[in-house]
Amino acid sequence: MTHAIETIDQLEALFGQAGEASLKKEVPYLHPSYQALIAASPFAVLATTGPGGLDASPRGDPPGFVAVQDEKTLLLPERRGNNRIDSLRNIVADPRVALLFLIPGVGETLRVNGTARITVAPELLARFAVDGKPPQCVIEIRVETVYFQCARAIQRSQLWAPLPVDARREVPTAGAILSALTDAAFDGAAYDRELPARQRATLY
């Protein structure tokens, strides 16, 4: 006997029917209420898929950094990073994307599914410039479905609750992780010392 759920029928029998509200909230366009959530969000997770597999990558800027072009189109500026460009490689190979928007202090999140393309149109790069520095490119997302996610996950995780004073000490630093992964061949302490200044200098 196996305890694995292997069919849709088994899965639906386990969970039962979806509630009416959970079905009504999904629409194929950016309703004004959903546009308001996007305008208030300073952080999103971008999910993509490609030949190398799946990728989920954080994106952040001041609230409203993802612009609503119209009720079927979002514009996401691609800022400076580590040049791995995993998400962008995936979009070139497979345009399907998903976005999860979070708003500090708000339990509901917003989910957007659609397809994307990468553009370097001069007017868009200029539109999203910060301190005279344009993004590397802009991801144009064609919206297919949009719906909000209820607050239970945020409530269970207490994501927006104040952090304990010693929370940072319980988490390894970026330098410590690099040192551990390379058997101390990487100077983690130096990396940690230099990281704040490097991040400030390369934020845009």
Can you tell me about this structure?
With 204 residues, the protein is an alpha+beta fold. The chain has two domains: 20-157, Pnp Oxidase, Chain A; 168-201, no CATH class. The chain has helices spanning 8-15, 20-24, 32-40, 86-93, 122-127, 152-157, 174-181, 188-201; strands at residues 43-50, 53-60, 67-70, 73-78, 96-102, 109-119, 137-149. Strands 2-1-5-6-7-4-3 form a seven-stranded antiparallel sheet, covered by helices on one side. Helix 7 crosses helix 8 (188-201). The chain is globular, with a radius of gyration of 20 Å.
What can be said about this structure in brief?
The protein is of the alpha+beta class. The protein has helices at 8-15, 20-24, 32-40, 86-93, 122-127, 152-157, 174-181, 188-201, and strands at 43-50, 53-60, 67-70, 73-78, 96-102, 109-119, 137-149.
**Average pLDDT over all residues:** 95
Helix content: 25-40%
What's the CATH first level of the largest domain?
Mainly Beta
Radius of gyration: 20 Å
- The helix/strand order is HHHEEEEHEEHEHHH
| Number of helical elements | 8
- In one word, what is the shape? globular
Number of strands: 7
CATH fold-level topology of the largest domain: Pnp Oxidase, Chain A
Could you state the CATH homologous superfamily of the largest domain?
Electron Transport, Fmn-binding Protein, Chain A
List low-confidence stretches: none
* Helix/strand class: alpha+beta
| Strand order in the sheet with the most strands | 2-1-5-6-7-4-3
Major sheet characteristics: 7 strands, antiparallel
Approximately what portion of the residues adopt beta-strand conformation? 25-35%
Measure the end-to-end span: 56 Å
Number of individual domains = 2
CATH architecture label name of the largest domain: Roll
